[in-house]
Amino acid sequence: MKALVSFFFLSTVLLCIHLWCPVTASSMKNETDRLALVALKDGITHDPLGMLSSWNDSLHFCWWSGVYCTPRHVHRVTQLNLFSYGLVGPLSPHIGNLTFLRTIVLQNNIFHGKVPSEIGGLFRLRVLVLSNNSFEGMIHTNLTNCFELRELNPIDNKLEDKIIEELGSLSKLTALGLSSNNLTGKNPTSLGNLSSVTRLSTAFNTLEGSIP
Question: Which of 60-92 are b and which e, b meaning 16 or more Cβ less than 10 Å from the residue's Cβ?
Fold first, then answer.
């Protein structure tokens, strides 16, 4: 009987985690994250698969497609996963208002324009995957304020200019992917400070020198 109870308890916990648990009345009062998500949606010029059709007032935003909240902070967005949604448009700077974000995955879309510098204010952020888009401009130094970053992956975009020295301050990075962009200049010596990195890719740019 004890084993059966434990099984159902574990199943309930797993179900709660999967569904990101029920929405409480207090969580409905929080507007910061909802408004940030609405601004993000408003910036999208084309949603060919209708993946953001659930982003409306008929559902609490924690139940919107690609949006995840945690049981502890049910009214705060901790993950934004829009992998292969086919979305077209700029990435709204209001993403910086999602201050509980730990994971951003925007891989395989057609986001364009600059990567918003406001992402640099997401001090809880651990994973930032922007690969296979059309982001332009340089890697903003504000990004190095995300001291908890473990993975930074803007592979296959149109980023340009040099690799900033400040990337070497992200001491918790384990994966850094910068390949297939338009980066130029020398590989900064500060990359040698990233002692925890086990995956590093800078190929298919116009970079000089060896990786420290």
Answer: bbbebebbbbbeeebbbbbbbbbeebebbbbbb
